[in-house]
Sequence to fold (952 residues):
Amino acid sequence: MPLSHCPSCQFLEDVFQRVIAQQTSVLIPISSEQLHLFKASQMQSPSSWKMLHFARSIAERIINPQGKIDPKSLLFLTKHLSSYVYSLGLDGEQEALGMEMILTKLQILSKNLDVEAAFKRVKMPYAQEHASHLIRRALLLSSSVPLSDALARKAALSAWLAPLRQSVGSCFATAPAILIHHHQPLQFFSDLAQIFGTGALKRTFQGYEYSVPLTAHVGLGALRFPVEWESLGEDPFQSLSLAPGLLAAFKAAGILQQEEKNCADLLKRVWGKKDFSFATFTAENLISEVLLQVYEVTSEEVEEQRLQQIHMPFLGSGFVHRIGTKKSKACEDYLKAYDAAKESFVAQTEHPLLKAWEFTLASFAEVKADTSRWNLCISLGLESEQEDGLTALIHRLLQSKIEKINEEIAHFQSMYDHTYAQVKSLEIRARHVSTEQEARWIQSEYRVQRVELDRILDRRDETHEKGKQLVSTWQILVSFYLDKFPSYFQEVYDAGMKEVNVGIYDDMPAGFRLLYKHGRNNPSVWTLLYHAPDYIQALSAFFTATETELSQKKELNLVQREVSQLITEIILAIREPTFLEKSIYRLANHYQEPTYKHPLKHLDQVKRTPWSYVSGGTMGTLVSTYFGHTTPPTEVKRWIEREVELLVFYLDTLKELPLTTQKKMIDSPQGGLLAYSPTHAFILKPAWDPFIQGWQNQSYTYSWVRDHWIAPQEAFWSQQWLEPLHQEWLQQYLIELFPKGYQHLVSQALKGMPGQRLLPVDWRAHVASLLSYETWLKPVYTSMLDHIDQILLEHLPFCFDVDLTKHLVAIWDMMPSVDNQLKAKLMQVYQQEHPPVQHIVSACDIQHLAQALLMLASGKTATETFYIKELIQAMRSLKLRAPAPILFADPNWEGKSSLGFVVNPGTGQLELWTFDMLGVRGRPLSAWKSYLDGRARKDWGIYVKPHEYGMV
Fold:
């Protein structure tokens, strides 16, 4: 939002800074300077930092050094926090859900003995280095701090209290994880206890054990969040040098000595000569480029060093490390510093242990399907006699050996026939001997030939039996390896997979990576496979490690030497580059994906490799495995041709649920049902108002929606006439959203506006038409239209400054929590402050001014009363804000609390948008349009039996 065009925003920020600086009774103080720096740098969410800070501080206060919950501290803190749940600051409504959840959980902890008992079962990890590292990261401790049960429980409790939102393409796991995290504390603490104890999560049912290791990655947080360079103000380097996340990252990397000054110097040295007009960047790029310059290495040298490391042979559970050159040492130092910097940056706004638990759950989406076995089977060419596959190779090698065996059998048969003839001849001569000496000679010769005949017969039969074993060797090998693959290989969710590139709303694709288990049960010694050399080394180790067991099979006792030779040939074959290329082709053909010439040189374009792939992530499989069911959860689904059909589908589905299920949803309004779109998994919220009204009535659903929801919104927008002054305000606002170098182009294009009174839909149509001729805008044209719709919804209706006092008084009169005393105080503050307003006052301006006045009148930045909610409801009743949208789901996205249906003021049509929790700020979901207008025949669905995923 352009602050120059919104003085009420700046006024609200200034008031917040003044009031928070004067507060003295807050038990968990929040640094106003830190909040300001997070906002100024725009790299990480201030609200996320604030909620995580609360979670860590609370855990530190209520858990004593012995690792027990201090009941007095818990009770006192719970009572105190209940007075500071609802913030009055900018975006304060976004923090309300997190604060409500923290307070609810503290109340559960103080009253529910089962939850306290489950929490006490969490103990510090033993021989689990990664889990120990996560605990230290979660509590922002150095690696030298010794662990204890108390620290492990502080990490676990802060993970339970911290907000959980989706940060990468893990929606299939995030949606069920949120329900478990928020509503199933016994299960959550049980999982953490198991992770700390074994380094894995296990589920056993129907005689099968499904195990997934603790994830190696905790995601990238906001590392790849795009930041607009021009949005950082007059001195971007100064703004960035104060960014808390960057300062933490560079400190962790060990390259900051004098903090801000040193940081600004670093940034200017690296990026000082770049042209950033109309450009965006990410924290990941910035951190990388700074560290590359500090360590005086290039990205190409680092990648070469990385490949050398992963090309080293396995030794037990790890790699053999070699002594490198000075340059390789610099590359290694860079990689260590880079990893430490990224970890520290992410930990500022995301809880590492909580994200590790979420991503560990994600691996259950593939473990039951045993995808690794079949992907290996396909990539190795074991499922058919494809060219250059292992089946073809084994068949060729076996055929060659069988041909030799047949030659040997033929040779022994010939020898047998010749010797048999000699034996028969001696038998005839023995019947016609003339002397005793001749008889003795014939008898002696007969015995020799008879022994030779038996020997030849035994060798012929043995060779024949050997040939029979060789004929069946292929089936035995394939069966053996298919049985052994799960003991040595497994596919797990990888939150750090760079191959996954998706849009902000199309985030179903997720990265899965193969890991090598070394045939051992301890997850701490398993190895993730990141590149082609990793994969080849693991395959070689697998075939070598299993050779002894294979050779001991009774069915192969005669062909042990041949099997050993065969395995040697297999290892040699898989080390050939052409074999790996063919493996990639086989996978692409099987999954009907595009192929590329020389794929090993274009792995960034290959969707699926034998060691990693992008998958949709199967929420049904995850849920059924995690909760111990043999069948997927029960679902109702359909494809959609219009937005109103989707709304009616949800309402009709909820109407048809059993009464017991409906009652549970009403009694637990913060619960929900798992649901999905064609590209995303989310949580349907049946008890949200006014959505609950739609499925609790018995009228014909479509007619009810049309008459009670759509028609009133259409009527509201049909009365919102935009005078030329209003249009000027909107056009200037729109212009200021563009980079300075392009603002004059937009201004010139908009000079063709008609200059007459217009409805919002007509004004938007004129703007869209004029800007459609700007060729430079084509890549962002749809996004720009969405932004226009967003501006109309957030800022209309307008009023004039002379009417502001009248409107504020009317609003306070309608707010239940504003009594006469507080109203008088508000009027007094209003007259003293003289808030800055423009001649045109938007709905946002009125809201921000009212929030600021409530802060000044109460002397608090947060209260026990949800004033912002009452304020919005009063404004809507007075038609000073747009009608409430129909909020129906939590999309799990960071900074976006709900999905909802609204009549778009710019198009006049009912559309699906993403909103904040009160439905005040929103944006059209244009990326999903093809799934809502029938072009893409893909299903939307709901898992309609909540008890199948623990929501009882």
